[in-house]
Amino acid sequence: MADDAGIDGVSGWFGIRWEHRNVTRLTITPELINAGGMLSGVATYALVDYTMGSTLWAETSDEEGIATVNIAINYIQTATEGDVICETGVDRRNRTSAVLRSEVRHEDGRLLATAIGSYAIYPRRPR
User: Fold this and answer.
1) What is the distance in angstroms between the CA of the first residue and the CA of the last residue of the chain?
2) Are 92 and 75 in contact (CB under 8 A)?
């Protein structure tokens, strides 16, 4: 079962739940439907960004931080109810950057979106 608590206020508001470090889920609610009657791209973007971040975070050391540089999303189709699941993989990681890819699917298996993201990896400053 998915973790009911987001990792911060934003992920909590969207209702993002972690099933694994690289798999997240959200339930479509009326607040996530845009004026066109479709799942908001903002919700899909947030799901992808948080999933990419947690996937990469699991591969960093305590001395490293990460930051999103760019995410490109291709929206294929939409959904208006049910759950949406994002699964992410790391395509390449080196000392200073990483490239990740995600697929967003409806719980019925339909592909809703694909994404590619790039992240910076940097040394953390001492606290």
Assistant:
1) 35
2) no
